[in-house]
Design a protein that fits this description.
- It contains 14 helices and two strands, in the order H-H-H-H-H-H-H-H-H-H-H-E-H-H-H-E.
- The chain is mainly α.
- The protein folds into three domains: about 110 residues, no CATH class; about 100 residues, no CATH class; about 55 residues, no CATH class.
């Protein structure tokens, strides 16, 4: 037993001189982190529904706005990374060997190895390879969703040529026709890079078309609502068989209103022809 060692020392935890798993360079240790910097940082708790790749990107975005005072952005990322981890994720970082992470690249790799599982990679890669445009999805929306899958799995390892093939294969027949029209024939005579630019151009053009279509539909929905609101204020209480018999008469009346665009005040009297008037005598026709 070494001098000044006692049996009771076995019951007392020992802490390494530098317990952190991240070994910071001197410049990073001397960098002053202000509360405004910390408030800009994202948080990661190690939960199953969290996206570790998005967390890394958020760190990049936050640090890119920090002033560089004698440090590089990589060194700043090393400095702030522990502050972004909470709960289980913080426990994981503290469980790593002290001083084992000496570069930002090592930190990022270790973090993604832990939280970006092989199963998740396989799932995203399968979604790319088996991509299919949905029936209610426009070309622009399908292209945006496909690129979103690629961004979620940057290590998919699928070459551009195969990416373009998988996207085109998953398109609906109507979108296939759009591609053929824009390409002036078969897209197969184009390079993968040219095909990518073709899809980008189609997405931009169809986006403008979709926007115009949605605007027209919104106007139609608004007009329908206005008509519905007016008609919903009118109560018609008539025997069913009489209503069926007099449908032509009511049709002429409604057509007359539309043709002449008549506007009636809430209490204004409406003069009907004798057929409609006779029917109204049997029931009631009034406005709330």
């Amino acid at each position: 037993m070494a001098a000044n060692e006692f049996m009771g020392d076995l019951d007392i935890p020992t802490i390494p001189a530098s317990p952190s798993s991240i070994l910071l360079p001197t410049a990073a240790r001397n960098y002053e982190l202000k509360s405004s910097h910390l408030n800009m940082l994202p948080s990661f708790y190690g939960l199953p529904n969290e996206d570790p790749l998005t967390h890394i990107k958020d760190i990049f975005n936050a640090v890119s706005s920090f002033p560089l005072t004698g440090v590089t952005e990589d060194q700043l990322r090393m400095r702030v990374f522990p502050y972004t981890l909470k709960d289980k994720a913080k426990y994981w970082l503290n469980s790593l060997k002290p001083g084992s992470l000496t570069t930002w690249g090592a930190i990022q790799k270790k973090f993604l190895e832990k939280y970006f599982s092989t199963q998740k990679t396989d799932m995203l890669r399968d979604k790319i390879l088996l991509f299919a445009q949905q029936d209610d999805e426009s070309f622009c929306e399908a292209w945006e969703r496909f690129n979103g899958l690629l961004n979620q799995c940057p290590h998919h390892g699928i070459p551009l040529k195969l990416q373009m093939r998988m996207f085109h294969k998953g398109l609906t027949p109507s979108s296939h026709n759009i591609v053929t029209n824009f390409a002036g024939g078969s897209y197969k005579t184009k390079t993968p890079e040219e095909t990518y630019e073709l899809f980008e151009a189609i997405a931009m053009e169809t986006q403008h078309t979709d926007t115009r279509g949605k605007r027209i539909k919104a106007n139609q929905d608004k007009a329908f609502k206005e008509i519905y609101d007016i008609l919903s204020k009118v109560n018609i209480n008539l025997p069913l068989l009489d209503v069926v018999k007099q449908i032509p008469a009511y049709g002429k009346f409604i057509k007359h209103l539309i043709t002449h665009k008549l506007n009636f005040a809430p209490s204004e009297e409406v003069k009907l022809n004798k057929n409609v008037s006779a029917l109204c005598c049997k029931g009631s026709f009034h406005q709330n």
